[in-house]
Amino acid sequence: MKIDGEAYRSIWLAEDAQTVEIIDQTRLPHRFEVAVLRSLDDVARAIRDMLVRGAPLIGAAAAYGMALAMREDNTDAGVERAHAVLTATRPTAVNLCWALDDMCARLWSQPADARVDLAYARAADICNQDVAINSAIGDHGLEVIRAVYEARGGSGPVNILTHCNAGWLATVDWGTALAPIYKAHDLGIPVHVWVDETRPRNQGAALTAWELGCHGVSHAVVADNAGGHMMQHGLVDLCITGTDRTAASGDVANKIGTYLKALAARDNNVPFYVGLPSPTIDWTITNGVRDIPIEERGPEEVTHIAGKDSNDEVVTVQLTPDGSAVANYAFDITPARLVTGLITERGVCAASREGLAGLFPERVGTV
Ligand code: MRU
């Protein structure tokens, strides 16, 4: 996607074709800074500290982390260590394990001196594949938006509520939940996006609002608690979110607060769709609430908040009283029964084992 007319992906190789560069998402929206990753440890830190975040981008970054690791140590022990270091960075998004397992399977099958080139080539493939997948999600999701627009007789914008950031910053390009929105906007279907702020890290207020603004998409940031009220008053036609891990049963893990939006959507007959690339499906899990691991992060994400002061300086301030205890659950699970449909690169399906198996029959019985 474009920033000030210049095309960007969220991750790329520097001119030396070895160093990895990313947009530092902890600095947005007030600063646009590129961070340079030169080692396995740099990549692990970037994922853990969320300079890169979003399930597909975490997978892509981890793939490049393996490539950098092979430059440091291309032995079997080096492959194992890199896999362990990167796996430990974040637990919920399954794309991380998917990318690492894929990389390792290929690296194991090669002699050590072939591993650097192979790892860079495969990491580039994973990135390109992510872009193609997300573009296809956009095409299928576009039809969902078009149907809502036509059902309304083509009057007024389609009002879409989204949570967290599942846009191009969360992927290599296009995004998942936002890809259909960009495609609709580009085709002239009027859309307006209600952007949940997404406490505690404010991915909506900081990242989704910034992305949509760069692309000229009409949007407004709303407090996390506003969605239920807006749905009761007919202000939301459609919800679309992303997911970090989708169980084979159709249960979806996504940013904390997604479940409450799905409950409000069901109570108000608002369709609730989830956009996902197939590497986000965990075919080994049949009960998301029970079996998807939920990341718990540090208290400072809840106790403190960053923003721009009147001097244009980015400052961090404390919100909570000294000494108040904090709990910081990063994700929740929306049960399949609350999901209207899953938008994948192969089409839209029911959030169910049968729905997913219908689109990905080759995966049935493989795990
Ligand atoms: O903690 P984050 O910012 O990595 O969480 C991201 C999300 O919850 C996204 O909605 C999800 O990864 C889908 S991204 C296409």
Walk me through what this model shows.
The two termini are 36 Å apart. 49% of the residues are buried. Helix 1 packs antiparallel against helix 2 and helix 2 runs antiparallel to helix 3 (76-87). The chain is globular. Strand 6 (158-162), helix 6 (179-186) and strand 7 form a beta-alpha-beta unit. A seven-stranded mixed sheet has the order 8-7-6-9-12-17-18, sandwiched between helices. It has a four-stranded mixed sheet with strand order 13-10-11-16, covered by helices on one side. The chain has a three-stranded antiparallel sheet with strand order 3-4-5, covered by helices on one side. It contains twelve helices and 18 strands. It has 367 residues and is an alpha/beta fold. It folds into two domains: 2-128, Up-down Bundle (Four Helix Bundle (Hemerythrin (Met), subunit A)); 135-363, 3-Layer(aba) Sandwich (Rossmann fold). The model has no long low-confidence stretch (mean pLDDT 97). 39% of the residues lie in helices and 19% in strands. Bound molecules: 5-S-methyl-1-O-phosphono-5-thio-D-ribulose.
